[in-house]
Amino acid sequence: MTTSARFWPIEEKDIPGCAEVFVEVFGSEPWNEQWHAVDAQARLEEMVHTPGFHGVLAASDEEMLGFAMGHTEQWQRGTKHFYLQEICVRTEHQRCGLGSGLMHVLCQDLTAMDVEAIYLLTARDGPAQAFYERLGFDANPGMIMMGKYLDERGTA
Ligand SMILES: CC(C)(COP(=O)(O)OP(=O)(O)OC[C@H]1O[C@@H](n2cnc3c(N)ncnc32)[C@H](O)[C@@H]1OP(=O)(O)O)[C@@H](O)C(=O)NCCC(=O)NCCS
Predict the structure, then answer these.
(1) Ligand 1: which residues within 6 Å by Cβ?
(2) Residue 152: pLDDT band with limits 50, 70, 90
(3) What is the pLDDT of residues 64-84, one digit of tens each?
(4) Residue 104 domain-assigned (yes or no)
(5) Is there a contact between 67 and 48 (Cβ–Cβ < 8 Å)?
(6) Of all residues in the chain, what percent carry a pLDDT higher than 70?
(7) What's the 95 CA to ligand 1 centre distance in angstroms?
(8) Span from the CA of 44 to the centroid of ligand 1 (angstroms)
(9) Which domain, by its residues, includes 28?
(10) In the chain, what are the helix, strand and coil shares in percent, each to the nearest 5?
């Protein structure tokens, strides 16, 4: 790792800084999304208020470098799963091991919370897929993601 960082659990006060990183990262390649700061902050505020929320922040002495966050979900036989909703690392600090560091700390925390599995959505064949595969994640051959935009009347 060429970027030195400290890792700690995310609290609500960290959300504005996370939103700033989020806008920068997802507005860049390969995502090129059009996030306004107010929307990014609202999205991350929703997450931090979701029951079972857990997140990890990475920062140097000077700046926030990245974060990972999501929430636990009750699963069968009394077990819990974790939905990883967002992970991002400042563009200029990517490929320095920070994403792996965030996932390592997150997985340690989740193991201590008796979570038995993590799942997530990402772009097929994108760079993030390579990142997750390197960490031992597999694409589930039996599942697909489905979605639908609603018209004004919300008809099916
Ligand atoms: C995905 C992301 C969180 C990974 O964090 P990172 O700090 O860059 O990743 P690491 O340095 O820990 O990478 C570990 C390994 O994952 C793989 N990997 C990471 N980024 C990759 C990329 N862009 N292309 C191909 N493989 C990649 C590599 O095997 C890498 O090891 P190497 O650098 O020794 O080859 C970060 O690149 C990021 O914020 N990307 C934009 C946002 C994003 O896509 N988030 C996930 C949305 S679901």
Answers:
(1) 25, 87-89, 94-100, 122, 127-128, 130-131, 134
(2) confident
(3) 999 999 999 999 999 999 999
(4) yes
(5) no
(6) 97
(7) 6
(8) 21
(9) 6-134
(10) 35, 25, 40
